[in-house]
Write a structure and sequence with these properties.
- With 164 residues, the protein is mainly beta.
- It has a 10-stranded antiparallel beta barrel with strand order 1-2-3-4-5-6-7-8-9-10.
- It starts with a helix and ends with a strand.
- It has one helix at residues 2-18, and strands spanning 44-50, 53-59, 66-75, 78-90, 93-102, 115-122, 126-129, 132-138, 141-150, 153-163.
- It has one domain (22-163): Lipocalin, CATH 2.40.128.
Length: 164
């Protein structure tokens, strides 16, 4: 029994360390009050490198209670996939939603489904959604951290972007 408990404690510690830049939205909790002006620093044209290629994100400034974005991954000069989405003002808080598309714009999610990230916390230079964090390093650099699952293992992945 002690061995099982020790193993669980070690796994919990490693999982916490592996996800030190993201936070998890706990069910039965409530997203905090926030507005788009608090995260307007995300707006811009950003480029970086990840997954063996070039990543590009373009975020609009707040308009119509939302900030929309497009993302693409290009490897060997070919688009691998796209994401389209945005941060929306929902009542007194924010919600990040997105959809994935293959290079031919065929969707990954079902027609009416989106991948949703509930707001966990906002600070001056970071916005924490459920396992998805956007961090302002400077006016010309941001980091995105997202927890991805692969073969049942979760891993926090960092995207570093420079303003274009």
């Amino acid at each position: 029994m002690k061995k099982i408990l020790l193993t669980l404690c070690v796994l919990a510690f490693l999982n916490t360390k592996a996800q030190e830049n993201t936070m998890k939205f706990t069910e039965n909790s409530t997203s905090p009050p926030a507005n788009l002006d608090e995260v307007s620093w995300i707006a811009g044209h950003w480029k970086g490198e990840a997954f063996g290629g070039i990543t590009e994100e373009i975020w609009s400034p707040p308009l119509g209670n939302s900030m929309m974005f497009s993302f693409k991954l290009v490897v060997k000069n070919k688009v691998v996939f796209y994401e389209l989405g945005g941060i929306t003002q929902v009542g007194e808080t924010l919600l990040l939603q997105l959809k994935h598309f293959n290079a031919d714009f065929k969707g990954w999610e079902e027609k009416d489904d989106t991948v949703d990230f509930k707001l966990v916390k906002v600070t001056e230079n970071k916005v924490y959604f459920d396992q998805f964090t956007i961090e302002k390093i400077s006016d010309n650099e941001i980091n995105l951290y997202v927890v991805l699952a692969d073969d049942g293992q979760e891993k926090e992945v960092k995207f570093n972007y420079k303003r274009q």
